[in-house]
Protein-L-isoaspartate O-methyltransferase
Amino acid sequence: MIQPVVALLLLLLLIPIQEKDIYKERREEMVRKSIERRGVDDKAVLKAMRTVKRHLFVPSSQVEAAYEDHPLPIGAGQTISQPYMVAFMTEVIRPNPQMKVLEIGTGNGYQAAVLAEIVKEVYTIEIIPELGQSAAKRLKTLGYDNVQVKVGNGYHGWPEHAPFDAIVVTAAAEAVPPPLLAQLKDGGRMVIPIGSTSQTQTLTLIEKKKGKALTTKLMPVLFVPFTGGDKKE
Ligand code: SAH
């Protein structure tokens, strides 16, 4: 018969292993039910969504809800985007391992981590200093060495690292900020929610061809507002 003490020790050893599996299973279910079933089929995107531990990007009070398909509060009145939306927007830019991508609206860094799993370099800008700083720390701790975080107004982009192969904007703007279009490579793709922030906005694809912007409306969405106007940081 196993001694009660031994049994207890075995149980304690098993708990962390089981916990790990729970989140892996939930992530798998999230990808199958909320992402693949809704039409995202880029292999690299699906792999990244299966890899990034979303529960490490939400506040501790939200961990249990981390793999449900909706946005979650992350503090400072901001949200971590819905998993399907992150996957969809990542697929829209047609990511590949050679790309340099700019993200506006780091939040907790989840979208940046998903991008970093696929592309070569990610530059991401967050206007709320506490969020930007904690995202930078989190991404570093998790080993995402190919992501650089800057605190500032993303309206002006990151000219020192331009041009970018793609730009992902995760806050809703009234119109495409001209500096972002200028920093997009010719042939590059930008995905951005456009519209009045109190109503639904339209997720929009901008393709830059011979200096011109081709616009395609993708779907109605609801994002937090793009703040700061065109003010310099
Ligand atoms: N990309 C995040 C989504 C965060 S929500 C994710 O993966 O979940 C959008 C973020 O955009 C918020 O944190 C908000 O503070 C930020 N934001 C809004 N306006 C901005 C601006 N002008 N420049 C940079 N970040 C901005």
User: Anything to note?
Assistant: The longest strand covers residues 184-194. The chain has six helices and nine strands.
